[in-house]
Amino acid sequence: MNKYAIAIHGGAGTIVRASMTPEKETLYKKGLELAILSGEHILKNGGSSMDAVEAAIRTLEDNPLFNAGKGAVFTNNGKNEMDAAIMDGENLKAGAVAGVQNIKNPIHLARTVMDKSEHVFLAGFGAMEFAEKNKIEFAPDAYFFTRERYDQLLSAKQTDKVQLDHTEEKKFGTVGAVALDIQGNLAAGTSTGGMTNKKFGRIGDSPLIGAGTYANNKTCAVSCTGYGEYFIRSVAAHDVSCLMEYKRLSLKQACRLVVQDKLIKIGGEGGLIAVDAQGNIELSFNSDGMYRAMKKSDEGVYIGIYRE
């Protein structure tokens, strides 16, 4: 059987052991394991990388620990505005949504934009109208309410600052997945609730094809997590692919150059996950930690949180 591979992330940032209780660490690891296995199950049974990526991200969106879907942070006006994107490396098709509210699984809406429209990117009320027409599942405001997220908003409002997904620690809350299936096709997806107390319809890198999400069978699939503005300015995900295609760098070399050099030079903090057409996986970050997991067809599950 041809090899398959899958990797996921649940955000990066100042994630250190001193700020994590054993109980919460266990919950994060269980959440990551459940997500990676939901995607791997599809790959193991001959399913597509697109289906595996969507399944893994949906599992993370359903977990209130992660800043996507049910765990999305609050905007300045007390709403949850979510962004997501997915891309097929076989044909370079992609779908993305931004600023959507009450969508239970934004990654599924992004997939539907790709599959059932002639467009790539829909935003705001138009995206939600499209969701209604295509019978995408909505959820009430109460579904997205978590006390921790609401307390983060109240804290941010006291200083009138836009905050990353954090309490004491600084954490860039995004979830993502990349996969290679046994047919040799790559896929990538990313989903996020953005920044606490964000205003003016701010959109980060997650739904932007080439910035936070990119897949191309010639090179790799990439999903980013970090301070989105820097990843947008760097076109980070596409840059990894370009370094492989045009400079003939390996996946490891390309990820290292983007994350440990180019982003740092402009003040960008965070990381990315990537898989190439040979099934090599990179989990690269320049922050103190990144919630991450990976599984290859011939290896066990790896789960990490802190810098090792």
- Percent helix range: 25-40%
Count structural domains.
Answer: 1
Shape: globular
Sketch the topology as an H/E string, one letter per element: EHHEEHEHHHEEEEEHHHEEEE
For the secondary structure, the number of strands is: 13
**Low-confidence parts:** 165-169
Q: Any idea of the CATH class?
A: Alpha Beta
Q: Count of helices?
A: 9
| SS class | alpha+beta
- Mean of residue pLDDT values: 92
What's the architecture, going by CATH?
4-Layer Sandwich
Distance separating the two termini: 32 Å
**What's the CATH topology name?**
Glutamine Phosphoribosylpyrophosphate, subunit 1, domain 1
Query: Largest sheet, described in full?
Result: 9 strands, mixed
Strand content: 15-25%
What does this structure look like?
By secondary structure, the protein is of the alpha+beta class. It has a single domain, classed as Glutamine Phosphoribosylpyrophosphate, subunit 1, domain 1. Helices cover 35% and strands 25% of the residues. Strands 1, 2, 3, 4, 5, 6, 7, 12 and 13 form a nine-stranded mixed beta sheet that branches. Helix 1 (22-44) packs antiparallel against helix 2. The protein is globular, with a radius of gyration of 17 Å.
